[in-house]
Amino acid sequence: ATANIGVVGLAVMGSNLARNLASREGNTVAVFNRSRSKTDELLATHPEANFVSAFSYEEFAASLTTPRTAVIMVKAGKATDAVIDALVNVFEPGDIIVDGGNALFTDTIRREKAVRETGINFVGMGVSGGEEGALLGPSLMPGGSDESWITLGPILRSIAAVAEGEPCVTHVGHDGAGHFVKMVHNGIEYADMQLIAEAYDLIRRGTGKSPAEIADVFAEWNRGELESYLIEITAEVLRQVDAATGKPLVDVIVDQAGAKGTGAWTVQTALSLGVPVSGIAEATFARSLSSHPEQRAISRSLPGAEEDLEVEDVDAFIEDVRLALYASKIVAYSQGFDEIRAGAAEYGWNIDLGAIAKIWRGGCIIRAQFLNRITEAYAEAPDLAVLLTAPYFVDALGRAQGAWRRIVSTSANAGIPAPAFSSSLAYYDGLRAERLPAALIQGQRDFFGAHTYKRIDKDGTFHTLWSGDRTEIEAEDTH
Ligand code: 6PG
Predict the structure, then answer these.
(1) 139, 129 in Cβ contact below 8 A?
(2) Is 427 helix (H, G, I), strand (E, B) or coil?
(3) Relative to the CA of 261, which ligand 1 atom is closest?
(4) Per-residue pLDDT, 1
(5) Strand 69-72 and strand 51-53: pairing?
């Protein structure tokens, strides 16, 4: 046995992660794929890499030094279970199986529990950064036991992206914590992308600028507080010209956004936890709406706004969009961190929220300068219940007030959909409100279902005898 780490599953992500591992001093990487051709191809195209190929699980296990450590990089779902079963058969107590796919965290909790019974460690690990990240340095979000982190920590630190001198990896928490955090990362990614898309749409419709001209706007934004990978690549996509037609590529791409499910998981989980991730939800639903061409076709002739968007001062309008984008982005991240906080409480994970912001500063899709502000906020107040109430964000939200409201009302007046902008603002105003109409909802619930309510002026639970004489009685709390 000569390999200190192995990779199972050699599609693009797996091959790139294997190459990244092999490129680090001291690593020898065992590689295995269900069909032999992928393994042969990887070895043939990268003869320089320190690989040991295996063509059966037995060979794979035999090529690894103990504790054996293997990273599974297969499509999340049934394939993952099949590979885990096969590895459990050939591994021994103390060995470590890492799932680097986009697994649903509840699957990871289940798998960890089952594998732990064999004495083998199971680690669900979020890997972000796409193909390039896997090769050059991803952001890594491992869960699993403290014991596995002792072996894994140094290996993962050596391959992770580096942001401001620190590797973008931390032991997130036990069992499914890593995949949970990766899931929320993706939810935030959906929100960030939708907000950018809405900003682009408003600028295009409001100013008539071409995609290439809007690319310049984004490139400019990328030099300020919005600096991020997603803003950077947006400029690149907008600048791309289609070779076949000579048109901007964005104009020949079908306007129906795909999704592989992690955004939906983020929203479903938030619903179960009772966390209002409305910006992430709107972003996810906006993709769904776009992907129903038949519904969109029969709706095209519906009545709309009376006025078109008319922008007098183009520069001022673009600055408004920028501020609205920044404010809405703060809301999306605040909601995402709220979900992580709530998930940690529900599942008993000890998650350092500031450390999560740190490991997202490099390697991952949502990497942004802005994450430093989040780390600072949690450094100052580790128990901060609402991220956007940290002083830096309060200041940024203060600067954006006029712009944010103008953009939301302008888009509504002109009939331009801006679901993520407007839902972020509604969330913000909901949080701020002194009184919410939730009081009326409690009254309605009590009316039709005797669901009871609390009073502002005394303890206890109450019910009004709506179908009787409408006096109030003390009641059992039914929520
Ligand atoms: C990442 C990405 C990655 C993947 C998304 C795409 O962090 O590297 O999030 O995991 O590209 O899952 O998701 P959709 O296909 O759902 O947009």
Answers:
(1) yes
(2) helix
(3) 16
(4) 84
(5) unpaired
314: left (phi over 0), alpha (psi -120 to 50) or beta: alpha
Whether residue 247 has its Cβ less than 6 Å from ligand 1: no
Cα 284 to ligand 1 centre (Å): 13
Ligand 1 within 6 A of CB of 115: no
Which are the catalytic amino acids? 182, 189
Instruction: Answer yes or no: are the C-beta atoms of 325 and 195 closer than 8 Å.
Output: yes
Reference 223, options 234, 232, 211, 214; nearest CA is 232
Helix (H), strand (E) at residue 215: helix 211-221
Ligand 1 site, residue 192, Cβ cutoff 6 A: no
The two tokens of residue 229 are: 């990978």
Contact 73, 17 (CB under 8 A): yes
Q: Is the CB of 129 under 6 A from ligand 1?
A: yes
Q: What is the ipTM of this complex?
A: 0.96
Tokens of 109: 């909790």
Q: What is the mean pLDDT of residues 151-160?
A: 96
pTM for the model: 0.96
Percent of the chain clearing pLDDT 70 (strictly above): 100
Ligand 1 pocket check: which of 193, 262, 267, 361 to mutate, most ligand atoms within 8 Å of Cβ? 262
Distance from residue 176's CA to the centre of ligand 1 (Å): 18
Instruction: For ligand 1, say whether the CB of 186 is within 6 Å of any of its atoms.
Output: yes
CA distance 399 to 387: 17
Show the tokens assigned to 21.
Answer: 């591992």
**Average pLDDT of span 461-478:** 94
Structure tokens at 131: 């193909």
- Residue carrying the six token digits 């063509």: 55
How much is the average pLDDT of 108-115?
A: 98
pLDDT of 395: 98
Which residue's alpha carbon is at the smallest distance from atom 1 of ligand 1? 128
- How close is the Cα of 13 to the center of ligand 1, in Å? 12
- Nearest Cα residue to atom 5 of ligand 1: 186
The DSSP bridge partners found for residue 141 are 126
* Helix (H) or strand (E) run with residue 128 in it: strand 121-128
With 90 as the cut, is the pLDDT of residue 307 above it?
no
Helix (H) or strand (E) holding 429: helix 419-432
Amino acid letter, 358: K
Q: How many CB atoms lie within 10 A of CB 400?
A: 22
State which of 260, 280, 356, 359 you would mutate to test the pocket of ligand 1, scoring each by most atoms of that ligand within 8 A of its C-beta. 260
Q: How far apart are the first and last CA of the chain?
A: 60
Please tell me if the CB atom of residue 351 comes closer than 6 angstroms to any atom of ligand 1: no
Q: How confident is the model at residue 479 (pLDDT cuts 50, 70, 90)?
A: low
